[in-house]
Amino acid sequence: MTTRRELLLAAAGGWLLGSTAPAGVGALAAEAPGAEPLEALPGKKPLIRRAWRPPNYETPLEGLVPLYTPNDLFFVRYHLAVIPEIDADTWRLKVGGAAAQRPMDLTLHDLKHGFERVTLTAVNQCSGNRRGLFSPRVPGVQWGNGAMGNAEWSGVRLRDVLGKAGVAAGAVEVVFNGADLPVLPATPDFLKSLPIERALDENTLVAFEMNGKALPHLNGAPARLIVPGWTGTYWVKHLTEVRIEPAPFDGFWMKSAYRLPTGAFPSVRFKTQETPETTPITEMLVNSLITSHVNGAHLKRGAHVELAGKAWDGGAGIAAVEVSIDGRQSWQAATLGRDLGRFGWREFRYRLDAPQPGPLTVAVRARSRDGATQPEKLTVNPGGYHDNIVQTVTLDVG
Amino acid sequence: MRRTLVIACTALLAAAAAVAAVAGEQSLTLHEGAGRDLTAGRCAICHSLDYIPNNAPVMDRTGWQKIIQKMRERFGAPISDPEAQQILDYLAGNYAGKS
What we know:
Distance between the termini of chain A: 31 Å
Number of domains of chain B: 1
Structural class of chain B: mainly alpha
Number of domains of chain A: 2
Order of helices and strands of chain B: HHHHHH
Strand order of the largest sheet of chain A: 6-5-14-9-10
Strand content of chain A: 25-35%
Helix content of chain B: 55-70%
Largest sheet of chain A: 5 strands, mixed
Shape of chain A: globular
CATH class of chain B: Mainly Alpha
Strand content of chain B: under 5%
CATH superfamily of chain B: Cytochrome c-like domain
Number of helices of chain B: 6
Largest sheet of chain B: none
Number of strands of chain B: 0
CATH superfamily of the largest domain in chain A: Oxidoreductase, molybdopterin-binding domain
CATH architecture of the largest domain in chain A: Alpha-Beta Complex
Helix content of chain A: 10-25%
Distance between the termini of chain B: 43 Å
Shape of chain B: globular
Largest interface: A-B, 29 and 30 residues
CATH topology of the largest domain in chain A: Sulfite Oxidase, Chain A, domain 2
CATH architecture of chain B: Orthogonal Bundle
Oligomer: heterodimer
CATH topology of chain B: Cytochrome Bc1 Complex, Chain D, domain 2
Radius of gyration of chain B: 13 Å
């Protein structure tokens, strides 16, 4: 019987040869719940498979080491299994809705040449990232740490597109549809909405490029929504339709999915979708991830080691990352890397000295510019969202 | 394309699963047991069967009952009451790994 650890080790073989591979990848395999073999989808390098159909594949830890997550290592997340390949030449973006004054259809050429081009760096993190590490565990795709990535997105402001279509007074939400479809028509199609203010925010984009190249098919070609700071569920892929509406949208994926207990988290409120019991997930919470080492990694005693990783939040920007090696009694500042803008993640580095043999437990916590820090305790919720608790790894010094 | 799929699904579930399935997922065989073929036929219409073992560690009988209900009521899974009962018995007996 092959253990999960052996499987992942075998699958990760290629990676382990790379110079950037985090120390102790085998230990991660033993720790990550339901770890699956790596598998390459068309146009992608091997990713950790969480489901075959619809394709749900996460980035292995090694893929989160570069400052910009390469397109062919970026995670893939779909709810519905019918995913048409779209011909960019015949693709149309339909812009309308009951609160649109001048409904119109745009070609990709119209989009690229009719509006000002904007580029920004932003983290795209699935709402359910780390659900598989949640305790108590909850149903859903059992993601580890890799349902996220950081990229440079280029496109046009949604605001400019909406402006051309004319936003009537009384518009409250903008609804988005993508080309992906359910297998059976009885399954609700994947449509999402944004509050009108967020749709008109200068940072909300319709993007057609990722890291300077056309969007990969599995990341939403030919154009997708970019909602910097907000979780991936709003970043609708293969965008086909944008509707400006005078009433709250009541589709399944807004009313019944991606919801949190009202008041449980300190996030921006999506008021037109809120009930006394539940409210839509909105921005990401301040969080961090150690990418240089995994639990159980071996360190040579006396050697100087660099601990490194990434920190991000919902758009305030990262103010500081702190490291504790004494069981959270004292915290030292890590060095922050280049600022990629408030929606990008921030690299951190910390020189670790390991003078004593034995286990060394390292804890990392990030603080955002609005003062929020990572909590010690998980706020349990049925969807398994927002796991941003302080991460610890125990290294084996010898 | 979608219409063809729908007809295939409602008329011939096994065939529909074959139409939509991706290479690789055929390598997963559910555990032996009464109700396995029914479960494999119905639960692979919209997604691959790995949704079952992947969620098993989280599941007990009540958990599976809620999932089956969600698949039927929210997602429109074409599963009758007696079928749902058989599938529940199968999943609770073979894929309830919640500790």
